[in-house]
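Ops channel
N.P.: pipeline sanity check, posting one input/output pair.
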């Protein structure tokens, strides 16, 4: 009486390939950002689900307990906004550009701008553990 058709299987394969390409684009962009921000040993985390969230926390210069905040509904939106703003500032771009990575479809462009364009890159989001030279005090000129 009723016939169900699942459609042509090729459409499922094409959809799967498109989704894999999108995932790879975002993962590679995050990988590039991690390299720019000095997370050289952990940049490969961008290709692994959940680990890429930990990498984002590290790139934003926050503590790892922020991951728990990512698990709380509504709070996670604020956390992701703060982290992407910090990442954008870290690569020498406007924080607004980092915030725009939360907007669907716009994020294709903004994450590409953050990852693949130049800027005033800083080496690491973390302050140096020990300064190479102690700060000099002003001396009186006589």
């Amino acid at each position: 009486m009723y016939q169900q058709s699942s459609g042509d299987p090729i459409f499922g394969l094409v959809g799967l390939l498109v989704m894999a390409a999108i995932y790879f684009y975002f993962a590679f962009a995050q990988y590039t950002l991690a390299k720019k921000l000095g997370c050289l040993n952990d940049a490969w985390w961008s290709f692994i689900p959940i680990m890429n969230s930990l990498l984002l926390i590290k790139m934003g210069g926050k503590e790892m307990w922020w991951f728990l905040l990512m698990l709380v509904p509504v709070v996670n939106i604020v956390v992701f906004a703060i982290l992407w703003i910090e990442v954008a500032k870290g690569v020498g771009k406007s924080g607004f550009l980092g915030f725009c990575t939360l907007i669907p479809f716009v994020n294709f462009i903004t994450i590409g701008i953050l990852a693949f364009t130049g800027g005033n890159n800083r080496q690491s989001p973390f302050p140096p553990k020990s300064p190479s030279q102690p700060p000099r005090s002003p001396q009186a000129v006589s």
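N.P.: looks fine end to end. Confidence is low (pLDDT under 50) at residues 127-131.
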